[in-house]
Specification:
Layout lengths: L5 H8 L3 H23 L5 H18 L2 H15 L8 H15 L3
Helix pairs in contact: 1-2, 2-3, 2-5, 3-4, 4-5
């Protein structure tokens, strides 16, 4: 499975390549902004859960299926009160998605 599901991305953007590049760039920026704050245990837990929720929604909008699933799991754990959040898999999924986005012409 690719980090970005092109069929989902096409469905979200109506097949418009320029729009796809634009939403991928926005998603990449959100990943770079959200992931460090999500990983910061000094941030309030509710705020971290909201960040995971935002990342999940952004991932869904570009077809980043694995990022979406892992952000969903992180959000659920945070909302359930988990203090020890391992974000290694999510970080790897984000890195893979960002690498694929960087290859988009």
């Amino acid at each position: 499975m690719h980090p970005i599901d092109r069929a989902e991305l096409d469905a979200q953007t109506g097949g418009d390549a320029d729009l796809a590049r634009e939403v991928l760039a926005l998603f990449a920026g959100q990943c770079r902004s959200i992931l460090p704050r999500l990983a910061d245990p000094s941030q309030p837990q509710a705020q971290r859960a909201d960040l995971a929720h935002t990342l999940k929604g952004s991932a869904a909008g570009v077809g980043a299926v694995r990022v979406r699933a892992l952000a969903d799991a992180a959000e659920a754990r945070l909302r359930a009160g988990a203090e020890d959040l391992d974000l290694a898999e999510l970080s790897q999924a984000v890195a893979a998605a960002l690498a694929e986005i960087a290859r988009v012409p």
